[in-house]
Amino acid sequence: MRRRSPTSQSFDDSMEKGQGKNHHPRVCLLASLSGLFWFLLLYFHFVILGGNHVHDSPNLDPLSLNKQSIITPQSNPNPLNRATIRNAKVEMDNNELVVKSKPLEKNVQPPPAVVRPVISDNSSRRDPESYSFMRALRTVENKSDLCGGRYIYVHDLPPRFNEDMLKECRTLSPWTNFCKFTANSGLGPQMENAEGVFSNTGWYATNQFAVDVIFGNRMKQYECLTNDSSLAAAIFVPFYAGFDIARYLWGYNVTTRDAASLDLVDWLQKRPEWNIMGGKDHFLVAGRITWDFRRLSDSDSDWGNKLLFLPAGRNMSMLVVESSPWNANDFGIPYPTYFHPAKDAEVFTWQDRMRKLERKWLFCFAGGPRPGNPKSIRGQIIDQCKESKACTLLKCGQSGESKCHSPSSIMKMFQSSLFCLQPQGDSYTRRSAFDAMLAGCIPVFFHPASAYTQYTWHLPKNYSAYSVFISENDVRKKNISIEEMLNQIPPEKVKELREAVISMIPRLIYADPRSKLETLKDAFDVAVDAVINRVTRLRKDIIEDRKYDNYIEELSWKYSLLDEGQTELAAHEWDPFFEKPKDRSAESDNSSAEAAKNSWKNEQGQQ
Predict the structure, then answer these.
(1) Across the 607 residues of the chain, what is the mean pLDDT of every consecutive 10-residue run?
(2) Backbone angles phi, psi at 525, to 5 degrees
C-alpha cells in the first residue's frame, strides 16, 4: 500500500475537518449581504428618490440652478426657501441632503411670497441699479441742476465723417458749387432786402438740404453738453449723412455709397457708449429725405445707400426732413427756411408783421406740374388756379422761371395769400410748406404724409387747428373745387387758423447757430427735447421690463398720432393713403425711391 506524502495528507485532512465542523461563518456572510441589500434599498428610497422631489416641485427648473444663486441656511433661516432647496441639490455629496430635504417629504409647499420662479435673464427684471444709464436718469432729481435730464454727449468723430466734407464742399453737388451754402455755419449767403419782403437781419439763401451742418452747429451751442457720457440723456452722432450720400448718388456703385455708413457703424460699435443700449440712445441728422438711405438691394442701379437698413442704423434715431410712414427709426424735422434769427426780438417783430399784412389772394400755388407721375394732382391744381380770379400762381418748370426760385418772389406771394396749396412734391413733403407758414399763410395739404404724420414733434396733432385738409383723391377723381371749399370757411375761422400758424413760427425755424434764442424754442430745441423724451421712455421701459410684442412697424405712422399712454390701434380715415399693395409689397418703397430720383432731377433744374 503506498504511503501518502505528508503534504497531500495535510491538505486532505484540512478538507475533512472543514466538512465536519458547523456552518456559522457561512450564515454570517449571508446575513451581512442581506443587511447590505436592505441598507442600499432604504438609502435609494429615502435619499435618492427623496432628493429627486426637488425636480418635481412646481416652477423649479434644475437646469437653471447655479452656484452664484446658492444661499446657505445660515444666511436665510427659512428652511423652505428656494435657495435652500437648491443648496440641498448641489451639496448631495456632503451628507447634508437628508436633513435639508425632510420638509419636502412632508409635502409642505413653500409660501408663494418667498419662492420666485426661475426664469431666463432675458425675461426677468433686473435690479435698476445695475443699468449704466441710471445715473443719467437721476440727474433730473437734482432740482438745482438746470440741465438735469437734459445732458447731451456728442461723439468726437474723426473729421472724415463731417468736417472733411465741408473742406471738399465742391463735391457735395454734381451741378453746383455747394460751398456757398456751407457759409455762415450752414445758413448760406446773407440775402439783401431790396424789395422789403424780409427783415433787415437774419435772412439767408439757405439750401433746403443743409440741415446736417445747421443742426450740428446748433448742437455746439447747446447749453447742456457734457463730456461725461454716463450723465447723457441722449448721445449725438455728428455725422453729415446727407452730405455723404449727396456726393455719390449719381454714377457711383453701392460699395462707394455705403462706405462711410459702414465705417461709421464700425467706429461707433467699438465705443463703450454704444454697448450701454446698443445704440438706441444715439441719434443723428440727415438733411435729406429718408428714401436716400433706404436702398432695397445691392444692385448698382438701385437708389441711395442702406444706412437706415443696417442693424446699427435701425437702432439709432435718425432725424430727416422726410421720414418713412412704414418705419420706426426715422423722424421728420422741418426743412430749413430762409429765416434764422439771432434774437427773440427778431422773431416777435416778424410775427407781428405777418399778423398785420393785407392778403388780397384767397389762395396761391408755387410749383410745376409732374406730367410723368399719373398720381400727381399738380396739373389739376395749376388748372384750377389759372381759372380762378382768387388765386395767384408762380409756375415752375425744370428749366424754370427765375422768379420761381427767387426767395423774395416766393415769400412775397405767400405773404399776400390767405391759403397756400401744398400738394405732394417729388416725394410726400415740400420745403414750400414751411416757407408758407413762415409767411403766415395757412397751408392746405392733400396727403397726410405731407405734414400730419411727418412732423408730429413740431406740429399740433389737431391738424384742423392750423391747416386745411383736402384729400387728393377728391381732387383727382371728383375734380372738387378748391376755391369753393376754401370760401366755405368762415372769416373768424380763417383768422384763428392764421393766428395758429403765426404762433407756430418759432418752432418751425432754425435760429442762427452762432447765437441762442433766450425764451423761445426753435426747431432744433423741439427736436432735441423729443429725442430726450424718446430715450427716457425707452430706458424706463427697459427698467420695468415692458415690451411691445404687438408693435407693427409698418403702421408706425399710426403710433405717432396716438395720445400719451395710448397703445391700441384702430381703423383710421387715412388708412387708404398708406396701404401697400399686397401683391407687390415693395412697390411703395420703389415708388418712393423713384420720387427721390425725381427730387434730385428737379433740384438740378433749380441750380
Answers:
(1) 39 40 56 68 52 35 31 34 35 35 36 32 69 91 93 98 94 86 95 92 95 97 96 98 93 96 98 96 96 95 95 97 95 98 98 97 94 88 96 78 81 98 93 98 98 97 97 91 97 98 98 94 98 96 86 91 83 91 50 55 45
(2) -60, -45
- Residue whose grid cell is 442762427: 512
Residue 59 corresponds to which cell in the numbers above?
A: 416652477
| Alpha-helix runs per DSSP H in 225-335 | 241-248, 254-269, 272-277, 311-315
Residue with cell 396701404: 579
Alpha helices by DSSP H, 21-105: 24-43, 50-51, 53-56, 82-90, 97-105
Can you read off the three cell numbers belonging to residue 503?
Answer: 404762433
Q: How many C-alpha atoms does 111 have within 13 Å on its Cβ side?
A: 5
Q: Rounded to whole angstroms, how far apart are CA atoms 225 and 200? A: 32
* Residue 272 burial class via C-beta count within 10 angstroms: exposed 0-12, middle 13-18, buried 19 and up: exposed
Task: Indicate the residue type of 575.
Answer: D
Q: How far apart are CA 163 and CA 203, in angstroms?
A: 24
* CA distance to 20, 186, 341, 522, 535, per residue, from 511 (Å): 122, 11, 5, 6, 25
User: What sign results for the dihedral spanned by CA atoms 404, 409, 414, 417?
Assistant: negative
Which residues does residue 421 pair with via DSSP β-bridges, in sequence order? 444
**C-alpha cell belonging to residue 247:** 456726393
Residues 236, 155 contacting (CB under 8 angstroms)? yes
Contacts 24+ apart (CB under 8 A), 91-97: 92/51, 97/47, 97/51
pLDDT of residue 70: 28
Amino acid at 267: W
Vertex 363 angle, CA 431 and 195, to 5°: 65
**Looking at the DSSP assignment, which residues form a beta bridge with residue 332?**
320
Q: Give the whole-angstrom CA distance, residue 587 versus residue 580.
A: 7
